[in-house]
Design a protein that fits this description.
Layout: H1 5-17, H2 31-40, E1 47-53, E2 59-64, E3 70-77, E4 82-85, E5 89-91, H3 100-104, E6 106-109, H4 112-128, E7 135-140, H5 150-161, E8 173-177, H6 181-190, E9 194-198, H7 204-210, H8 219-227, E10 237-243, H9 251-260, E11 266-272, H10 286-298, E12 303-306
Parallel strand pairs: 4-7, 7-8, 8-9, 9-10, 10-11, 11-12
Antiparallel strand pairs: 1-2, 2-3, 3-4, 5-6
Helix pairs in contact: 4-5, 9-10
The protein binds iron/sulfur cluster.
Length: 327
């Protein structure tokens, strides 16, 4: 718009820093420029079309974009804050068989504004409904594979991290991916966020059978890239592993996992599978999960068994989908 660069930063501060989505209220911007901005741009925050609350306090939003396409986003409560699980695509082309988003197919990428806008919309909802906890942490683990929409996700991450923007520190943001080679390298170089990798199998054959879209990044190549992934001294990659009964949860799978991860600086998150009526997968038994966990621990790994939140409102891991596919 032939304006000096500092003007852009002023607007950025209003929108993302102060959460003001009205040009008229941007008082340090000249009236003439405010009018020009209002003629050229409009604010289309994702609109909360539906909000459901779980018995454990998790809140699931169905958010509608300007073109009426919808994506889900989830607030997970902790003692003193919420973590928001943010979506990056409508649907997902990866087609993981145990995931509701994967089964709905792919519609489109979300723009950086639609990705970051989910945070403004969630904060607005919390304010207007007098929820006391702040939204302090972000995980890019909602609908979609973030690294397949890397250009938009990268822009959204810069809004998350900018001190004049949403101002989240790196430690407060985790991006979860099944792995996309080129963007994974760029993500590592960017040092913008923590990395979580949805591995879910200890070898290429099994992984391909349950995560067909992820198979193009060959398993051994992915592991070797994770071994070289740039990490600060105390940082580790999180390996996500969903426990699927009779599929990936035997002791021999645990042994294989120990072997392949031996040189990856990582911690392991085991996830209880959240069953869905449209899938044949079942969650491993509690006993099986503990045996699996104990084995990994006995081999020196830090292993967490992640608490599943929001399953009663289909807000848990692997359960998100669009309105068009509900019921
Ligand atoms: S698990 Fe993640 S990558 Fe796989 S289909 Fe679901 S959203 Fe996509």
């Amino acid at each position: 718009m032939d304006e000096p660069a500092y003007r852009a930063r002023q607007v950025l501060k209003w929108v993302w820093g102060k959460e003001i989505c009205d040009f008229d209220l941007m008082t340090n911007v000249s009236k003439a420029l405010r009018a020009k901005l209002a003629e050229t741009y409009s604010f289309n925050l994702p609109e909360v079309r539906k909000a459901e609350q779980s018995s454990d306090g998790t809140i699931k939003f169905l958010m509608s974009m300007a073109d009426q396409k919808t994506a889900e986003s989830v607030l997970i409560p902790a003692e003193d804050h919420y973590t928001q699980c943010v979506s990056t695509q409508i649907g997902c082309p990866m087609g993981c068989l145990f995931c509701s988003t994967g089964r709905m197919g792919f519609d489109r990428n979300l723009s950086s504004g639609e990705i970051a806008g989910q945070i403004l919309s969630a904060r607005k909802y919390l304010r207007e409904n007098n929820y006391p906890l702040p939204l302090n942490n972000l995980v890019l683990m909602g609908m979609g594979e973030p690294l397949l929409n890397w250009e938009q996700v990268k822009k959204a991450l810069s809004i998350f991290r900018d001190p004049d923007g949403l101002n989240f520190s790196r430690r407060k943001i985790t991006l979860s991916t099944v792995g996309v080679k080129k963007s994974l390298r760029e993500l590592g170089e960017s040092n913008l966020v923590f990395l979580a990798v949805s591995l879910h199998a200890p070898n290429q054959g099994l992984r391909r059978s349950i995560m067909p879209g992820a198979a193009s990044y060959e398993f051994n190549e992915l592991i070797s890239d994770l071994e070289k992934y740039p990490l600060a001294h105390r940082d580790r990659v999180t390996i996500e592993y969903v426990m699927l009964k009779g599929i990936n949860d035997s002791l021999s799978h645990a042994r294989e996992l120990v072997k392949v991860l031996s040189k990856v600086k990582c911690k392991i998150n085991l996830l209880r599978y959240n069953p869905d009526h449209s899938s044949d997968f079942k969650c491993s038994s509690e006993e099986n999960i503990f045996v699996f966990q104990d084995f990994l621990r006995s081999r020196g790994f830090t292993v967490m068994l992640r608490k599943s939140m929001g399953a009663d409102i289909h807000a848990a891991c692997g359960q998100l989908k669009s309105a068009a596919t509900e019921n």
